[in-house]
């Protein structure tokens, strides 16, 4: 297989790659499953508890229908769309049956589980034509408990095969850090990056809930990563940043701004970035809220970028903004500001997106598009509203990935097919996207290796 046809998966969460049948086998063999934790999460998100316990027991007894029923309950499908809380509840099933979920458990049990799942994921990649995969994993804040060390030692050794062992894709690891305090893990990240398996640690990731964690909060950390990269170019780390995926806590304007800010702070790849390119008209006239502090940040942005925004067709009234800023400054930062959207304001958001896309493009940041994930977590029901149309039209560097192919019931090939079909790009676009993904590997973006 030639390199320009090898599929490269750049946005994958390791445990989200576990297919329903593999999880069901694991559950059936578990002595201990924290069922209450899962069932409480499902009851809170869905208002009912699915009969997963009973299905697992039927599977143990050899019921041939159990596997299909389990997959139907586990996969986060179109009927679940538009609610990140629902996604988290379903994902909880991967946690409650996992030795990894109890990071203070016996390290040997953790090693065995992680090695088994990693081997299964690798086999899945082979089946679906993936020749290169970057996996992300989120553990505790410090990454330093015996259990966490067992997880990372197992994965690093598995990925650092140097061509030895079973055939399979080249695999790399990115460590997902906690948005509230990435510094807690930084010493451990440096230790791994400069250690014997550091060649396969190629990035740090920021995922999970983004509400309440503006990109500005990690500006200093991003600068520290860049300094590390300058000092150790052979072990440089890409910054992978989920942003603009879920933005219920803010205005559409602020959501767009967050994506631009993440790129300009130095993120190499932007996860999802739905807010940057989704058709604002898809939301229709509606009302949103954000904090006074967030609105003040948006006012500051509008004033700093007034000329560029105006050139893009956005009305900016400095006097009115200064007056609003003075009024909001007297309020507590968490005071609620209401923002109402009519058709005119939604059209103006589109102009803001155009401006922000031009700024993101200038940074060289790559946007990771995960179509099924975007449609279901982002609740984008109409394919015409999906941001990939505008990303491609704007000339943004774009890669396509599957995010959590196990829980979404998808493959990278299916995601590429969807993009090419919906945009009309056909085989030519598919080849372009496959090559673009090779060029957007973390180790290429940081300069560790040259693009193929």
UniProtKB/TrEMBL annotation:
Gene3D superfamilies: Metal-dependent hydrolases. PANTHER family: ADENOSINE DEAMINASE. Signal peptide: none annotated. This is adenosine deaminase. Its cofactor is Zn(2+). It comes from Thermocatellispora tengchongensis. One of its GO terms (biological process) is hypoxanthine salvage. Coiled coil: none annotated. One of its GO terms (molecular function) is metal ion binding.
């Amino acid at each position: 297989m030639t390199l320009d046809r090898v599929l490269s998966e750049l946005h994958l969460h390791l445990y989200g790659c576990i297919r329903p049948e593999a999880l069901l086998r694991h559950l059936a063999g578990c002595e201990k499953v924290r069922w209450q934790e899962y069932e409480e999460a499902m009851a809170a998100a869905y208002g009912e508890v699915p009969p997963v316990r009973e299905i697992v027991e039927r599977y143990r007894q050899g019921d041939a229908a159990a596997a299909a029923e389990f997959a139907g309950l586990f996969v986060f499908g179109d009927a679940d769309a538009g609610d990140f809380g629902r996604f988290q509840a379903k994902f909880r099933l991967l946690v409650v049956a996992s030795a990894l979920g109890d990071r203070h458990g016996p390290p040997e049990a953790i090693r065995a589980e992680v090695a088994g799942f990693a081997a299964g994921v690798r086999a899945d990649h082979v089946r679906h034509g993936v020749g290169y995969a970057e996996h992300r994993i989120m553990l505790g804040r410090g990454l330093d408990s015996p259990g966490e060390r067992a997880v990372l030692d197992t994965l690093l050794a598995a990925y650092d095969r140097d061509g030895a062992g079973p055939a399979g894709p080249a695999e790399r690891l990115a460590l997902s850090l906690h948005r509230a305090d990435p510094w807690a893990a930084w010493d451990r990240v440096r230790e791994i990056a400069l250690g014997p398996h550091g060649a396969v640690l190629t990035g740090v990731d920021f995922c999970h809930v983004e509400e309440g964690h503006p990109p500005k909060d990690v500006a200093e950390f991003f600068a520290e990563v860049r300094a590390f990269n300058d000092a150790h170019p052979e072990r440089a780390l890409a910054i992978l940043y989920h942003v603009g995926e879920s933005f219920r806590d803010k205005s559409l304007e602020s959501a767009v701004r967050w994506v631009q800010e993440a790129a300009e702070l130095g993120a190499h790849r932007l996860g999802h970035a739905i807010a940057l390119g989704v058709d604002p008209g898809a939301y229709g006239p509606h009302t949103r809220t954000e904090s006074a502090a967030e609105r003040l940040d948006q006012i500051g942005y509008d004033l700093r970028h007034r000329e560029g925004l105006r050139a893009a067709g956005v009305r900016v009234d400095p006097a009115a903004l200064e007056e609003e800023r003075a009024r909001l400054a007297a309020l507590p930062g968490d005071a609620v500001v209401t923002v109402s959207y009519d058709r005119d304001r939604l059209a103006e958001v589109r102009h803001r997106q155009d401006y922000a896309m031009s700024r993101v493009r200038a940074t060289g940041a790559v946007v990771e598009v995960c179509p099924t994930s975007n449609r279901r977590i982002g609740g984008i029901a109409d394919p015409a509203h999906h941001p990939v149309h505008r990303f491609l039209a704007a000339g943004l560097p774009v890669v396509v990935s599957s995010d959590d192919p196990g829980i979404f019931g998808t493959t990278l090939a299916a995601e590429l097919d969807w993009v090419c079909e919906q945009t009309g790009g056909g085989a030519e676009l598919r080849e372009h996207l496959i090559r673009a993904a090779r060029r957007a590997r973390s180790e290429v973006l940081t300069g560790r290796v040259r693009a193929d």
